């Protein structure tokens, strides 16, 4: 096996789309400390990579992500320091996904449970193949999914989130779409086409506009209504001075395709 194959995370960028692949199928792509550190490092590099405009978060094998590595956690039962560092590292990665200045699409094939479900909820968009399942089952093993509920409760209604958290039961992909955890559910053979068509559509936009828009979306969510309107009005006014906004408006009025400079 090559060194590249042994990495917990694989990264490939093509045509403005970076595919970030969880690459430990034999461990159900669990979020071990090594996997989390690999994700964190990759996200830091992608944030600085001007050739990357959209990220697809994918997985190798038949499980998207089974959450934390319980064997690793059990081996460290006596180390509160390790357990805290693990959950803090996981929280860091989830925030990196949200704060990444490029949209992130989860390509979900298989099961996404606990912190794996959290990872899906943290992405900006999610497409799941039919047959995928989701759960926050920590309650079943005496460890309530407290950190996963942060992302979950910001994506679905309170009652749907609480049902998942309190019962620990699996939901199917159609239910996940119904409650807003994923955007689309497609047949397995259509998964890549759907995901990469969506990614290509987004990659064709101004990278500067995507960055400003994503940041503004998450910031205004936490504001009172009046503050949100004040903030977004200022964002739009400032964006109007950007080259891409002026180019986009001119291209629309001139009935031509815009020539984005991504600034």
UniProtKB/TrEMBL annotation:
Alphabetically sorted, this entry's keywords are: Fatty acid metabolism, Lipid metabolism, Transit peptide
Function according to Swiss-Prot or TrEMBL: May play a role in fatty acid biosynthesis and insulin sensitivity.
Sequence similarity: Belongs to the enoyl-CoA hydratase/isomerase family.
What's the protein here called? Answer: Enoyl-CoA hydratase domain-containing protein 3, mitochondrial
**Sorted alphabetically, which NCBIfam families does this protein's record hold?**
PRK08139.1 (NF006008)
- One GO MF term: hydro-lyase activity
Q: Which residues form a coiled coil?
A: none
Q: Could you tell me the Gene Ontology terms of the biological process aspect for this record?
A: fatty acid metabolic process
CDD domains named in the record: crotonase-like
Question: Does the record carry Ligase as a key word?
Answer: no
């Amino acid at each position: 096996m090559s060194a590249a194959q042994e990495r917990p995370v694989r990264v490939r960028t093509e045509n403005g789309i970076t595919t970030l692949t969880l690459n430990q199928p034999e461990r159900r792509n669990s979020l071990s400390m090594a996997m989390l550190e690999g994700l964190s490092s990759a996200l830091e590099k992608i944030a600085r990579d001007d050739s990357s405009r959209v990220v697809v978060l994918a997985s190798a094998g038949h499980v998207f992500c089974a959450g934390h590595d319980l064997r690793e956690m059990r081996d460290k039962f006596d180390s509160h320091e390790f357990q805290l560092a693990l959950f803090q590292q996981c929280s860091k990665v989830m925030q990196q996904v949200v704060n990444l200045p490029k949209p992130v699409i989860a390509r979900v094939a298989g099961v996404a449970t606990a912190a794996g479900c959290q990872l899906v909820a943290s992405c900006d968009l999610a497409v799941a193949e039919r047959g995928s399942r989701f759960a926050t089952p920590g309650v079943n093993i005496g460890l309530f999914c407290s950190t996963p509920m942060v992302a979950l409760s910001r994506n679905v209604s309170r009652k749907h989130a609480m049902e998942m958290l309190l019962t620990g039961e699996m939901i199917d992909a159609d239910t996940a779409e119904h409650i807003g955890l994923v955007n689309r559910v497609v047949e397995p053979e259509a998964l890549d086409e759907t995901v990469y068509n969506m990614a290509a559509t987004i990659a064709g936009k101004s990278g500067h506009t995507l960055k400003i828009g994503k940041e503004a979306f998450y910031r205004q969510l936490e504001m009172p209504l009046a503050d949100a309107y004040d903030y977004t009005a200022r964002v739009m006014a400032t964006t109007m001075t950007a080259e891409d906004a002026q180019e986009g408006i001119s291209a629309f009025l001139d009935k031509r395709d815009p020539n984005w400079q991504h600034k």
